[in-house]
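Researcher: Last one for today. Full complex below.
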Amino acid sequence: MNYSNLDKAKAYKALLASEKISLKKILSADRIKNSNVKVGGGLTYNYAAMPVDDKIISTLQSLADEQEVLDKYKALLSGEVMNTGEKRLVLHQLTRGNCLGAKVEADGEDKDEFYKSQLERIRVFAQKVRNGEIKGSTGKAFDTVCQIGIGGSDLGPRALYLALTGYCSGKGTKQLKAEFISNVDPDDAAAVIDRLNAETTLFVLVSKSGTTLETLTNQELVTKSLKGVDPAKHLVAVTSKTSPLAGSSSVLDSFYIDDYIGGRYSSTSAVGGVILSLALGFDTFKELLDGAHEADMLALEKDIRKNPSLLDASIGLYLRNILGYPATAILPYSQALSRFPAHLQQLDMESNGKHVNRFGEKVDYVTGPIIFGEPGTNGQHSFYQLLHQGTDIVPLQFIGFKENQRGKDIVIEGSTSQTKLNANLSAQIVAFALGKSDENPNKEFDGERCSSLLSADQLTPKALGALLAHYENKVMFQGLLWNLNSFDQEGVQLGKILAKKVLKGCEGDEVLKAYADILI
Amino acid sequence: MNYSNLDKAKAYKALLASEKISLKKILSADRIKNSNVKVGGGLTYNYAAMPVDDKIISTLQSLADEQEVLDKYKALLSGEVMNTGEKRLVLHQLTRGNCLGAKVEADGEDKDEFYKSQLERIRVFAQKVRNGEIKGSTGKAFDTVCQIGIGGSDLGPRALYLALTGYCSGKGTKQLKAEFISNVDPDDAAAVIDRLNAETTLFVLVSKSGTTLETLTNQELVTKSLKGVDPAKHLVAVTSKTSPLAGSSSVLDSFYIDDYIGGRYSSTSAVGGVILSLALGFDTFKELLDGAHEADMLALEKDIRKNPSLLDASIGLYLRNILGYPATAILPYSQALSRFPAHLQQLDMESNGKHVNRFGEKVDYVTGPIIFGEPGTNGQHSFYQLLHQGTDIVPLQFIGFKENQRGKDIVIEGSTSQTKLNANLSAQIVAFALGKSDENPNKEFDGERCSSLLSADQLTPKALGALLAHYENKVMFQGLLWNLNSFDQEGVQLGKILAKKVLKGCEGDEVLKAYADILI
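Model: Here's the assembly. Have a good evening.
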């Protein structure tokens, strides 16, 4: 396969030479109606307000073809070593519980079977906890689950739980309350533990290696907090088979992941599966997986106009490398997605915030953008000022839903709150794209501020799964277009090494010591 | 006074011609020790890892002098019409309850006395609610307060409450639980109302005009949720004196703000004061005000090396306009500050995300940067990858504290979690600045990634007040250096107008209708 840098591609040079598109000239009702791509799970991606015309999209198709991104995606699915830095397979799509390609053998086992078997164990375990068959050590049923994990073991599962708890309330699904401790800051743990009842809380300790200092701290924390109960009956582990936690007598049960699931891609593995199945039921989690699988399937489509994650990735690359925009804002019009931008921030920035290609050679073009965002409900009364009238252009990704989750709404002056919410969302897209002239420059809006829209009837588990996988696949495709390894994270290592040095007294490093003296 | 654009200033031209500084060359233990400025409230600003030497700082001093920013700050304090767009005074510093300059007369009253009188009314009211003198309509004491407000009425007060609830727990201060509904999304309101007990909840409805559609919706929501109690006994208003809510029989009491307090600057007015005093006690709120006042006083210092908000503002301008960095990340190593970056995002981006100067003329230089951030505890396992090894440089602002708030910590392998947290923070600053060479480019860190550090012994109410005011004053000084009006927000208007149009059926606007058809 041809792994070459973006700036070697002919189509890239054609893009650099392409005529820039004015949204004011092209945005029309017809264009909006004709710019929809199905994402899976009932979600639709609309790119009408993106500054790309048919010609540019065709060139983006050529670029994807030249970079052979579809073949590379298939290679990934069939178990090639795509994480070249760490020499690992990349198998998170397999954790949806639906095989997408050839059978993958590794570590002496069929990986599809491995993930499926873990899924089945999660199903059985969650059912037993939820129906009271498995109880705490004092005989009380569990009513709370508390995940202890950091980075990807925290952001993704937390974002997904918050996204679906309202949906489950609306449906009347039985719920266990979920809490999350992301640790290191002792106040975070103390605050959560303060509001837990030890007798009715089941902890989920997530640690791949089971040997890190943070994990020891976590275990100790849990043990200390569980007064009057047997900790081993209140703790399950999500870990690798070779970890000391695996099958240890200090835990009630262990669920397994492996080295082929990066933290930021682990939400659909046991890392997200255990807590979501316990809190919201296995059926809810399974629907999420099905939605993710639908998005994974659509990502196999060669035609960029029918492949939403490839199209989104390619337009994003155009905005970044051709138009030079340094950031992208994620703006969900849904309070349920309040932590989803933080998850995408990790997913995208940790995957593609790289200055070397997959062979470790420096690249001569910009890669991953800054990702940030907040629910639009509040944001439009806040930082949208800069987005509308600031001196830089920030591409926007809106997310919206026709219906609310909880089924509780009120009509005031002829419209529901949900309708008002979506009237605002529609209005913002148009305001950003088309602007408004005014004789007072302070009230003038230049427009030409591009956005896309991901929408569905409702934020269901299936829609959420598709949304999650859409972004995972978008990030993967962008990494392939840029010729990066999107699956390692060497950039987080140096800080860890230096932190250890500080804890050992700085070892004569005067600069480090001067900062430590301020803080410790 | 001389209100002229940045690019007219001699010092600006000198900055453009200045030699760029290498952090690897200048960062030393001595520099770290000699780069501290007191911020107030026990906070210190350290700029050792910023790419500025004595010469550049002197030029930044000249720029501040040329732009007469100190005189303009004094003019603001003495009641000049600094919000030129809306022709309003800008008086949020007066809401700290400590007069800083000349007496300000407006609307036929002494404004200092006005804010002080509201503060006194808040003190008395909060005391009566907290000691049970004022009860709900069924005779039960209030144990929960719920703020209903949007934008600045939500982000700032919410961030401050979250920042101090752990501190109050650590001190054993009596607390009422605080909840926040930011509205429009019906699921947000439904989720909060679901967990409230009507009999023991006091609502705080924040709306300056008291006449907007959102306010009507809010009132209706509260009334509907308060089954079995008298709504008028469970609702107070924070509003303007001329609003229909003021002194209405539909509310238990009203606390007043006025047009001179912008939403994003309102945290120290009744908008933040009522809920914080009810939830955490008036004394806690008063300490926060005292910390803010200390920062306001330090902002009066002419010497940039002793004026932390002016220095921070000027260095920020250097990073933005001279070095061309488009964004700044806010990275608190404190879970208590989890929503503080979202507040700063509004404060900064809504204030200085402008393309016209204070006279409404387009400017030829970039203004406010993108502001984003998450607690570093999780962030360093997440998006720090891009910050370390991405192709763009993002300036960083770290925030850290020696001690935790809740007094609950554990020692593992010889160190507390708080020490580990701060070892990580120290390590990150050095890793970003100095990097590390490696024969494997994937493990190489270029360094030269600048950061500053705001630190204190503990996140106390006083330190938090100083932190809040530091950023308010930083934003004000940057606006003055850029010759902007940082106090209006015309950029949020167009969306509102178009949203109304959608609710009226789009009035023949086909583009708007095509988007509304997707979403409604």
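The radius of gyration of chain A is 24 Å. DSSP finds 19 helices and 15 strands in chain A.
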